[in-house]
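Hi support team,

I submitted a single chain yesterday and got back a structure, but I'm not sure I'm reading the token output correctly. Could someone confirm the output below corresponds to the sequence I sent? I've pasted both exactly as they appear in my results page.

Thanks,
R.
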Amino acid sequence: MRAVIQRISNSSVTINGKVVASIKQGLLIFLGIINEDMHEDIIWLSKKIGNLRIFADENGVMNNSVLDVDGEVIVVSQFTLHANTKKGNRPSYIKAAKPEIAIPIYENFVDQLESDLGKKVQTGEFGADMKVSLVNDGPVTIIIDTKDRNL
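Hi R., thanks for writing in. Yes, this is the structure output for that exact sequence:
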């Protein structure tokens, strides 16, 4: 699983002109899934994101997590995170998992994140043409790939 995590002051997802998710301070997470992703990846990534210390403390130091600041979260599926651009100018998405594999993993990740955060996580709609709006606070953008972790 590959996640692009952005610390935001507000964010929303619109599908067909209708806002389906909207939050204030928190995290916008773009999530890409491959066939090799497993339940262990879901658990590890959810805990890592929930505890990332990327919010300012009382001294202005990035020392607080989304849990510490009671922030909100939106998760958006994004198969293009696994684009291969090594050959030619047209990206290949062959590594991205097909919907029948990716959707259950995506839904399990959202469930795990809700459990770890103790609150509802908002989402886009898997496979939909989404318009994502955000104000990146900082800017702070972190990329995490579960295949790059040291266990």
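A quick pointer for reading it: The domain at 2-148 is CATH 3.50.80.10 (D-tyrosyl-trna(Tyr) Deacylase; Chain: A;). Let us know if anything else looks off.

Best,
Support desk
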